[in-house]
Design goal:
Layout lengths: L10 H19 L2 H5 L13 E6 L5 E2 L3 E8 L2 E2 L9 E8 L17 E3 L6 E4 L4 E10 L15 E5 L1
Parallel strand pairs: 2-9, 4-5
Antiparallel strand pairs: 1-3, 3-7, 5-6, 5-8, 8-9
């Protein structure tokens, strides 16, 4: 699958990525009770901020590769590592049954794809079948905002 955050990173972005990996490894070692008291500060989001998947539409039947277009209102898109109030970058949640922890940096894997360069569109190679997609905005350190800025989960069918 696609890992959009790591291509051509600057040394500053590499340092941030290393810190995120370090924090993520620490978070895996903590119990759920300890993680709630993690002390990681979450960036505030305006209450009217919304993320959306502009295309494909919920219930759509598509072919792979699937072009997914992201929408964001009430906030700005900024690359990972750019600390700017009321901004963040997209993370696409693919086929997740449960949301990731909101008080830690989002993991990077086949089900949580980072768009740390500030991308607002992607092409996904998805296997035939039913898939769910949802956007979740992360701050400069990939931590979801407070309150979380996320889209509705959509379901698509890939032929």
């Amino acid at each position: 699958m696609l890992q959009a955050c790591s291509d051509n990173e600057t040394p500053e972005q590499q340092d941030i990525a290393e810190k995120i990996v370090e924090q993520s490894q620490k978070s895996k070692a903590m119990s759920a009770e300890e993680s709630t008291a993690s002390g990681i500060e979450r960036s505030m989001a305006p209450e009217n901020a919304t993320a959306s998947i502009l295309s494909p539409a919920d219930g759509a039947t598509v072919t792979s590769p699937v072009t997914v277009t992201f929408g964001l209102e009430g906030m700005d898109v900024a690359p990972a590592g750019t600390e700017q109030e009321h901004s963040g970058h997209h993370h696409l949640l693919i086929d997740l049954n449960e949301l990731p922890a909101m008080d830690f940096p989002l993991p990077a894997n086949d089900n949580v794809v980072h768009f740390g360069k500030g991308q607002t569109e992607t092409e996904l190679e998805l296997e035939p079948g039913t898939h769910t997609l949802q956007l979740l905005l992360g701050d400069h350190m990939h931590v979801p905002h407070e309150p979380p800025v996320m889209s509705e989960k959509i379901t698509i069918t890939v032929e």
